[in-house]
Amino acid sequence: MRKYWVAFSSIEEISSSFILRLYNHFGNIEEAFCATDLSFIEGLSVKKAEEFMRLRDKVDPDMALKAVEDRGIKILAYSDEKYPYLLKQISDPPAVLYYKGDLFSCNLGKTLAVVGSRRATSYAKDALAKVIGGLKNTDLCIVSGLASGIDTTAHISAINNDLKTIGVIASGFDFVYPTTNKDLYKKLENGYGAVVSEYYPTFEPLKFRFPQRNRIVSGLSYGTLVAEASIKSGALITANLTLEQGRELMCIPGLITNPNTEGIYKLLKNGAALVTCANDVLEALGWELKIEQQNLFPDLSEDEKVIYEALEIEDKGVDELQAYTKLSIDNLLTYLTTMELKGIIKQVEGDRYRIEIR
Questions:
Q1: pTM for the model
Q2: pLDDT score for 159
Q3: Mean per-residue pLDDT, 214-219
Q4: What's residue 43's pLDDT?
Q5: What are the residues whose beta carbons fall under 8 Å from the beta carbon of 55, sequence distance 6 or more?
Q6: Can you list the domains of the chain with their CATH numbers?
């Protein structure tokens, strides 16, 4: 039966809603695909039905399935028992999900969507990394769109904090968009979560597919966190979809002088939950996750702990750190080098340092 789901989805001119209308009418995907008369299906466009039947005759279901399997792509049809429950509840669920990676290593019962600007500010990226860092070592799963900007920060922050993450893409798997995220795609496919698409492998990342993809990002998730968004943006489209789907909407506040925060404050004024830390997310979603408050750096010396403490509030330069820690310059520089090699801090903007792991 799976080959008929794939055959349907390989026809670029029809939508998931068309496929599911036929499936729900016949109750059997093979019968739906092979039907010779669709004129009696209430509400079905005659023109669309005729177009489907013309295009269907050019599709070999066995070959369509083989093309997917030969690419190492896994398939999840709407009729499968493992099809995500939350996604099935939205008004326009995808008929087929194609994925790479281990989708079911992700906790689909604790999913948080993250969306925002592709041209995100450093402030927004740092704020998002801080929020996700507060969820470290939990079984929460971060869902985003594998685009540049906030999406990329969301996936990388999840990986850095031992969280699973799902990337929902707006094309088939023959394409990587943006190409700069090629390595990130591979990480999600190879142990950190999964990359998911509703599109047959050969479908290109066309402009209209990005807003279509957004309904899956929010549809897979119990709530959506918006990190930065202008009034007219894809992130606001996802925010509205979140509300339509009856899910929780949250926003990270930003600088009021930044045009990319106009959408954020509009959402906050309309009742979105304000998020400044991980606990705000948990409170908004009504989740009680056990976040282990371990000593993250038991191997740090007392002096290194003082340096870490000095950087917790804001980035500091060497002179400021020396004044705070009272260490000699030689010892301070040695400690800074050691902590940077461990990945705990990072040098930025000349001689200034910031915390990388919280």
A1: 0.81
A2: 96
A3: 96
A4: 80
A5: 11, 13, 14
A6: 1-70 (no CATH), 103-285 (3.40.50.450), 302-355 (1.10.10.10)
Q: Which pLDDT belongs to residue 260?
A: 82
pLDDT at 295 over 60: no
Paired tokens of 200: 């047959």
For residue 357, what pLDDT is reported?
67
* Mean pLDDT calculated for residue range 341-348: 84
Query: By C-alpha distance, which of 128, 344, 105 is closest to 250?
Result: 128
Closest CA relative to residue 106, chosen from 174, 179, 168, 150: 168
218-257 burial, b for 16+ CB within 10 Å, e for fewer? bbbbbbbbbbbbbeebbbbbbbebbbebebbbbbbebeee
- Condensed to tens digits (0 to 9), the pLDDT of residues 189-203 reads 999 999 999 999 999
d(CA 316, CA 307) in angstroms, rounded, equals: 10
Q: How far apart are CA 5 and CA 79, in angstroms?
A: 9
Supply 144's token pair: 């985003």
Mean pLDDT of 111-117: 95
CA-closest candidate to residue 225, choices 305, 306, 129, 107: 129
Q: Please give the mean pLDDT across all residues of the chain.
A: 91
Instruction: Report how far residue 300's alpha carbon sits from residue 302's, in angstroms, rounded to the nearest whole number.
Output: 7
Confidence of residue 298 (pLDDT cuts 50, 70, 90): low
